[in-house]
From TrEMBL:
Entry protein name: NAD-dependent epimerase/dehydratase family protein
Xref: Gene3D superfamilies: NAD(P)-binding Rossmann-like Domain
Native organism taxonomy: Bacteria, Pseudomonadati, Bacteroidota, Flavobacteriia, Flavobacteriales
Family listed: Belongs to the NAD(P)-dependent epimerase/dehydratase family.
Species assigned in the record: Aequorivita flava
Coiled-coil region: none
Segments crossing the lipid bilayer: none
InterPro entries to which the protein is assigned, alphabetical: Epimerase_deHydtase (IPR001509), NAD(P)-bd_dom_sf (IPR036291), NAD(P)_epim/dehydratase (IPR051225)
Chain ranges of the NAD-dependent epimerase/dehydratase domain: 2-238
Length: 312
């Protein structure tokens, strides 16, 4: 059976629904520090679970005979800058708990998300390579870079089968993001439908790597289902979907809502975004386990506006 820790988050919610569809509702145990959306709560087993409590995680793992854990709980970039120690403790202790359960053979396989936030201001910004200079300047990025090193250490020293990808900014209509710097790319669709205008907290030229959630879920399941010998990188694989800036996503929205207007009021998140790459080279993921993104910016805009339309 599968345990999702952080199942009520932006990725966790969609990942839980996808895995339940694929493997059967009662094969996928959702857990989080708080209850989540009705669709998630009603579709299968749910446990209130603190990702920082080792004994509580172990109890759920034993009771449900869990084999695979997807650790989706984390404090994202913007919030972690407001609460550095809380962000570090949540992001790191939760990872150690799950790695140690695998080291002690209580679970068999782990998925742990990394992020393009592991790259910093000195990293090449265009087609950022799999291996390159990484001097992250955010708490979140430091925790993800460190987490990658620990994942590789537990694989090499203890044979722990942990797999990871560096997600770009993720965009979905089923769940709202929480505390990220790329969240503007979700909020803009809601505001375009509700108000036909949006005040953006990043400037017009801020190009960032992004991906529609369906592609991210596909990458997550693909890497977990790949034969272990195909996984040659045990810290985390670069993933690439699309790259755009607020001006370009605005142009895409205006094809559907011509009167949509954007204005710019950059805040503290501009510095975070400026430290990240603009585009990512994901050729190793393509070569090793057949990864390929599908959804383009205009296709995503069509999907987002169509599915959000009846909310407003
Ligand atoms: C964030 N959505 O903004 C996350 C992600 C690359 C961005 O890590 O913090």
């Amino acid at each position: 059976r599968i345990l999702i820790i952080g199942a009520c988050g932006q990725i966790g919610t969609e990942l839980t629904l996808y895995l339940r569809e694929k493997f059967g509702n009662h094969k996928v145990i959702a857990s989080d520090i708080r209850e989540g959306e009705a669709e998630l709560m009603q579709s299968g087993p749910f446990e209130i679970l603190d990702a920082m409590n080792y004994d509580a995680i172990q109890e759920v793992v034993i009771r449900y005979e869990i084999t695979d854990v997807y650790l989706m709980a984390a404090m994202l970039s913007a919030t972690a800058e407001k609460f550095p120690m809380k962000g570090w403790n949540l992001n790191m202790n939760s990872l150690f708990h799950v790695l140690n359960l695998a080291k002690d053979k209580k679970i068999e396989k782990i998925f742990w998300p990394s992020s393009i936030a592991v790259f910093g201001p000195t990293t090449p910004k265009i087609d950022t390579p799999q291996r390159t200079v990484m001097e992250p300047s955010t708490v979140y990025g430091i925790s993800k870079q460190t987490g990658e090193r620990w994942c590789e250490y537990y694989f090499k020293r203890y044979g722990v089968d942990v797999r990871s990808v560096r997600y770009p900014g993720l965009i979905s209509y089923k769940t709202l993001p929480g505390g990220g710097t790329t969240d503007y790319a979700v909020d803009i669709y809601h505001k375009a439908l509700k108000h036909k205008k949006y005040i953006c907290f990043l400037n017009a030229e801020t190009t960032l790597p992004m991906m529609f959630m369906d592609d991210a879920i596909k990458a997550t399941v693909n890497i977990m289902e790949a034969n272990t010998e195909k996984i040659k990188t045990r810290n985390a694989y670069n993933l690439s979907g699309m790259s755009f800036n607020p001006e370009e996503i605005t142009a895409s929205i205006k094809k559907h809502i011509p009167e949509f207007k954007i204005s710019y009021e950059p805040d503290f998140r501009q510095a975070i975004a400026d430290s990240w790459p603009q585009s990512i080279d994901d050729s190793e993921a393509r070569d090793d386990w057949g990864w390929k993104s599908e959804i383009s910016l205009d296709e995503m805009t069509e999907i987002m506006l169509t599915n959000l339309n009846d909310k407003y």
